[in-house]
Design goal:
Oligomer: heterodimer
Radius of gyration of chain A: 19 Å
Structural class of chain B: mainly alpha
Number of strands of chain B: 0
Largest interface: A-B, 127 and 123 residues
Order of helices and strands of chain B: HHHHHH
Helix content of chain A: over 70%
Strand content of chain A: under 5%
Radius of gyration of chain B: 18 Å
Chain lengths: 163, 154
């Protein structure tokens, strides 16, 4: 029985489960620290739009709420970069470079930028904070983006694009 | 635009960002390959990351809204993250899904990816800014025409 469970776990989680569970808890802990101190729920995609207010006069980017939050959102994003760098320095895995092709990163990034902003959030906003809030809106968004992403990744792989 | 804030506001944002960035790197989400493996059912780790994070944030929101009064650094009351449902939520979810499935990268994980030395990820971040600008350009024009009011996200 235990052997079967272990075999199943090894198949479903070939890289193990610890890094995922611990990493997920830390992602939420980072959000919780800011939330408990400020009552702000810090998503990650709003950074994109608010930062554009520094260089664009478009009304969408210059809403009072965006102008009021853009500075700390830049600080937050840079701190995420720094936190990941600390991980690299402490655990010394060496620098990582993705093999995924630039056109996939660039094209995917454009769609991610459009989609998260129109859809009111990203994997952190809807997938972590929204689901954690038992928000039906977020559940709809997550089911859609996970489902569509599975289809997209499968089709791309079936077309022979690797990686 | 300057906003008067509690002196510990920015340090707390930095601390939260450091923890989240460390967690994103540790979880493997900063590596597009790990996300793409999940989307092809080769490694279900992402379920643990997103699920574990959602459980922890759920407990945090529950405790804060139920038992805590006001946030010490802002004086604001605690709330949950509940957005209104409309067509945009569905359209945005689908567009984001195609982008996520194509690239294996989402905003927070992309920032963390820079921190682990993954310079090709700058392609994805450049794309995200272009996409965010395109939707903002389009919506600003529409708002000017229709007079629709905009709502900010947290």
């Amino acid at each position: 029985m235990t052997g079967l469970a272990l075999q199943l776990a090894a198949e479903l989680f070939p890289r193990g489960v610890t890094q995922y569970a611990v990493g997920g808890v830390m992602v939420a802990a980072g959000i919780a620290v800011i939330y408990l101190g400020t009552a702000i729920i810090p998503g990650n995609s709003t950074f994109l739009e608010t930062t554009l207010s520094y260089v664009s006069n478009r009304s969408r980017f210059n809403q009072p709420k965006y102008l009021a939050s853009r500075d700390w959102r830049v600080v937050f994003a840079l701190s995420i970069v720094a936190g990941a760098a600390v991980w690299g320095l402490l655990l010394d895995p060496g620098a990582f470079t993705t093999e995924v092709q630039p056109w996939r990163l660039f094209g995917g990034g454009i769609l991610v930028g459009i989609g998260t902003r129109i859809g009111k959030g990203c994997t952190a906003g809807h997938g972590v904070c929204g689901l954690g809030s038992a928000s039906r809106t977020s559940l709809v968004n997550v089911v859609l983006f996970v489902g569509v992403a599975i289809v997209t990744a499968t089709v791309v792989a079936a077309l022979g694009v690797t990686p | 635009m300057s906003v008067k804030r509690h002196p510990l506001f920015m340090p707390l944002v930095v601390l939260g960002g450091l923890i989240q960035g460390f967690g994103l790197a540790y979880s493997g989400m900063a590596r597009p390959e790990v996300v793409l493996d999940f989307l092809q059912f080769d490694d279900l780790g992402l379920v643990l990351v997103m699920g574990g994070a959602a459980v922890v944030s759920g407990i945090t929101f529950f405790v804060a809204t139920r038992f805590l009064d006001r946030a010490p650094l802002t004086g604001d009351t605690y709330g949950r993250r509940v957005k209104s449902m409309d067509r945009n939520v569905a359209v945005g979810g689908v567009v984001f899904g195609v982008g996520w499935g194509l690239s294996g990268i989402c905003p927070g994980a992309a920032y963390a990816s820079v921190g682990i030395g993954n310079l090709p990820i700058l392609w994805a971040i450049a794309g995200m800014f272009i996409g965010a600008y395109a939707q903002g350009y389009w919506r600003s024009r529409n708002e000017a025409v229709s007079g629709e009011t905009v709502t900010a996200d947290d």
